[in-house]
TrEMBL record:
Any one Pfam family match given in the protein's UniProt record, by short name: MMR_HSR1
Family in the record: Belongs to the TRAFAC class TrmE-Era-EngA-EngB-Septin-like GTPase superfamily. Era GTPase family.
Record-level Gene Ontology MF annotations: GTP binding; ribosomal small subunit binding; rRNA binding
CDD domains, A to Z: Era
Organism: Nezara viridula
Iron listed as a keyword: no
Protein name in UniProt: GTPase Era, mitochondrial
GO BP annotations listed: ribosomal small subunit assembly
């Protein structure tokens, strides 16, 4: 039994239709004069820590994370409710080029997701990884392109993984380089925003590595929670009068099925070499959420051939057991309840079950 009907009542997901109904019911009891709202698009290069930052805000692991790139596959929303204020975070896939999309067999959302989120958002949060010595001194060209297109949107620079740097002077120097030693407060708000052609955009990002229109800089370690308080308070102050889009007990617009599948996929990314995880299909086979304080799930890990099956299993099944344990914990962190997860490894063509592993 899937148990999805009760899931919609108990947990953090509602379908678009139910979401509108629940929002309408809630809004009737809460006028726009007494509630504030804000939408924030979180963008950045792959593995910058976008999902980790949002998870810190909502205090749940609603978005899958791993050390490898392209964990987030689609644009999704997480909701932070604080008093009468609601902040909606739009988590996006790491910005990629067409070549990267084809290499990793990524969907269209990896190319358009960032722009779609910005169109919906009030503020752009650019997450920049300072732990990467090769790229930390310049903004990603794909980020710069979007910032130049949407110059009228307020943008924030968030330096993430500051725990990897030993010196505060390094952060100050990085801030200067990434902003060109200018901030939006130093740029005339009356300056007309020129619409740029794609050719002009490409010429700009070939030579430019900074953005002079950031309104604020935040230095955080999302993993440790350091610096997140100031970031959160700034966003709360930026909320404006408006009706809430989501009811107060909703934390994300993601389907529970997707949350579970992405949790498993993220752990495959974490533990498998090279590009293998990008060629493995993860599919939820069974879900029971009807029991109080317990979720039971069976997830298929579908491989192209028996060689991949053996690689994923590892020596004496050691690797898949670690993956299952960590995925189970990630799902528990998202739903804030106990989880019983079973992974079943199959070959895609024959769907022949090689072996399964039950955590419990």
């Amino acid at each position: 039994m899937w148990g999805l009907s009760k899931t919609l009542e108990r947990f953090i997901y509602v379908s678009p239709i139910n979401r509108k109904h629940l929002s309408d019911v809630y809004i009737r009891n809460c006028s726009s004069e007494s509630t504030n709202i804000l939408k924030v698009a979180i963008i950045g290069a792959p593995n910058a820590g976008k999902s980790t930052i949002i998870n810190q805000f909502v205090k749940r692991r609603v978005f899958a994370i791993s050390k490898k790139v392209h964990t987030t596959k689609v644009c999704a929303r997480a909701i932070l409710n604080h008093g009468n204020k609601q902040i909606i975070f739009l988590d996006t896939p790491g910005l990629v080029s067409l070549n990267e999309s084809e290499r990793y067999k990524l969907g269209k959302s990896f190319i358009s997701g960032g722009e779609d989120a910005i169109l919906e958002a009030d503020i752009i949060g650019v997450i920049h990884d300072v732990s990467n010595s090769g790229s930390r001194s310049s903004l990603d060209p794909k980020v710069l392109r979007l910032l130049n297109i949407y110059q009228d949107k307020e943008s924030l620079l968030v330096l993430n993984k500051i725990d990897t740097l030993k010196s505060k002077n390094q952060l100050l120097e990085l801030s200067k380089k990434l902003t060109g030693e200018k901030m939006r407060s130093n740029v005339s708000e009356d300056t007309p925003k020129k619409s740029l052609s794609e050719l002009e955009l490409q010429q700009i990002i070939k030579t430019k590595r900074h953005w002079e229109n950031f309104s604020e800089i935040f230095m955080v370690s999302a993993l440790l929670g350091k610096g997140m308080h100031d970031f959160k308070n700034y966003l709360l102050k930026k909320t404006y009068p408006g009706k809430w889009i989501f009811p107060p007990d909703i934390y994300t617009d993601q389907n529970p099925v997707k949350i579970i599948e992405e949790a498993v996929h993220s752990k495959l990314l974490e533990h498998l070499p090279e590009e293998i995880p990008y060629n493995v299909n993860v599919e939820l086979e069974y879900l029971d959420m009807d029991k109080e304080e317990l979720i039971s799930a069976v997830v298929l890990v579908q491989c192209n051939n028996s060689r991949l099956v053996g690689l994923i299993k590892g020596i004496k099944g050691g690797r898949i057991r670690i993956i299952a344990d960590e995925a189970e914990q990630a799902i528990a962190d998202a739903f804030l309840t106990d989880v019983h997860l079973k992974l079943v490894i199959t070959e895609k063509k024959s769907l022949k079950v090689e072996k399964d592993y039950i955590n419990g």
